[in-house]
Design brief:
Structural class: alpha+beta
Order of helices and strands: EEHHEEEEHE
Oligomer: single chain
Strand order of the largest sheet: 3-4-5-6-2-1-7
Distance between the termini: 24 Å
Radius of gyration: 14 Å
Number of helices: 3
Number of domains: 1
Helix content: 25-40%
Number of strands: 7
Shape: globular
């Protein structure tokens, strides 16, 4: 997977873009669908374990984004942790977008942890791109 993280230096915000490489397409989306079948409690326990903080709130939904006339299956995942970290993920077959209220390095580590836990055989990002504004 390819990972770019953008950080706004005067705000506690980060934005990340993941691009899944050949053979990885759809796997994170499928993993989220599978995890959601365990119910909210299972998802909460999973996230808490992976990110190392109790979950204050979690939302997950599946649907379709129509982008330039093309329907794309997607998952929406919002995570709010007791240590005040927040993540909003939009996961598509070929990519994902993540918004966070953390700095770039923390977002990078948390995203990698979450992706590894969802799909352990995803390739490690090659030299992730970190950009500050």
């Amino acid at each position: 997977m390819k990972l770019s993280v953008y950080h706004f230096t005067d705000l506690p915000r980060s934005y990340a873009v993941l691009q899944f490489e050949e053979g990885e397409e759809g796997r994170v989306l499928d993993a989220l669908k599978s995890r959601s079948k365990e119910g909210t409690r299972g998802l909460i326990d999973f996230i808490s374990n992976v990110l190392g903080s109790e979950v204050r709130g979690v939302s997950i939904a599946f649907g379709t984004l129509n982008y330039r006339g093309h329907d794309l299956g997607m998952a929406y995942l919002r995570i709010e942790l007791e240590d005040d970290r927040e993540y909003v993920l939009e996961v598509y077959r070929d990519s994902a977008m993540i918004n966070s209220n953390t700095g770039a390095l923390e977002a990078l580590e948390d995203i990698k942890k979450l992706m590894r836990a969802l799909c352990p055989d995803l390739r490690e990002p090659r030299r992730p791109t970190l950009v500050g504004f």
